[in-house]
Amino acid sequence: MNNFKFYNPVKIIFGKGQIAELANEVPKGARVLMTYGGGSIKKNGVYDQVLAALSNNTVVEFGGIEPNPHYETLMKAVKLGQEQNIDFILSVGGGSVLDGTKFIAAAMKFEHGDPWKLLSEKATYKATAAVPFGAVLTLPATGSEMNSGAVITRVETKEKLSFGSPFTFPRFSVLDPETCFTLPPRQISNGIADAFTHVMEQYLTYPVNAPLQDRIAEGILLTLIEEGPKVLKNPSDYDAMANFMWSATMALNGLISTGVPADWATHMIGHELTALHGIDHARTLAIVLPSLLRYKSEAKKEKLLQYGERIWNITEGNEAERIEATVQATVNFFESLEIPTKLKDYDVNRDTIKEIVDRFQKRGVKNLGERADIQAEDVEKILEMSL
Length: 387
Ligand code: NZQ
Ligand code: ZN
Hints:
alpha/beta, Rossmann fold, Dehydroquinate synthase-like, alpha domain, 15 helices, binds 5,6-dihydroxy-NADP, oxidoreductase, ADH_Fe_CS
């Protein structure tokens, strides 16, 4: 096992009726900026529950944070937060609202000009402070509720970049599965595929003799495979939603990446497909991951065979056959969620592949993957396999 440091200070408040706990978690007397998205929280009662719990605080609202949150929108919230002397932010919604909130929180305290530098020049400009914030999560998918990362889109330049810092962990996250009963099937499918791929990017690398991390990762994958379809069939199934929600959180809170290599190339490539074509985040992963596994099947051989056997019961055939059957099982799983896995399904062609390769070269993106051996030309080949 590799050496590691593990730090995760996020308090999770899980279960039915737990939004009321905000009254105890949000600092007394704090002036609260409540951030939210396009209005789903007003249709499912979450908005009313939050305001009831915050009846003793001054609440300033900032709605309209879009999926793949826009820097341009978030900067308006930064201005509002500064004008209103906000001292706590509460994110109410999915991963986009929460990622946007992490950016707002860090940007409000940024002292070196344009806060976009936190993403575009992250080697130089790191967050050194942030306004404290918490979350009410309404969409199991990203794990943002229990990690310190965020992904922000700049519309003007069609860039989608990430940042993170020890200051951008939520103080707490309220996870009430009942808030997710109104999710449309597309968002449930996306959430399952996103969480699944988070586990895969931390598990499907090479063995370092870390059986506990492997088995936790496999436990999350098996739970997603088992519970995901139940949620899709009946989004009001509390137990299935609870199991899905906790799985998505556990998939990206740092626990399964302790002491093991991580890949993340699928996410890096996927972000470009969202930035250029607006394809839902999870769908980009379902396009890239199978091709990346095939392209890197030699380097990932041992873990692919383990994953195939333990997750999909693939034990017949020679190694090459088992690996192909394993990747195909993964494709079938994504497609069973009604997520198409080919670029042509999204009207994306070779021009986009060229553009992504160009962007990586210009930005100096290189050495991706757990062995730091995926270069721009490999990205081109991986994407061509997804055409
Ligand atoms: O905007 P509203 O009206 O709230 O509607 C949202 C949005 O249209 C809707 N929704 C959310 N909760 C709902 C609901 N509709 C009905 N009932 C509910 N309970 O769902 C739509 C999508 O929401 P969004 O927040 O965009 O989805 P998700 O949670 O999948 O977040 C995706 C974003 O997170 C980033 C992605 O790149 C993308 O920008 N990620 C963040 C990560 C992190 N911070 O660690 C890791 C991930 O890999 C990912 O990159
Ligand atoms: Zn993701």
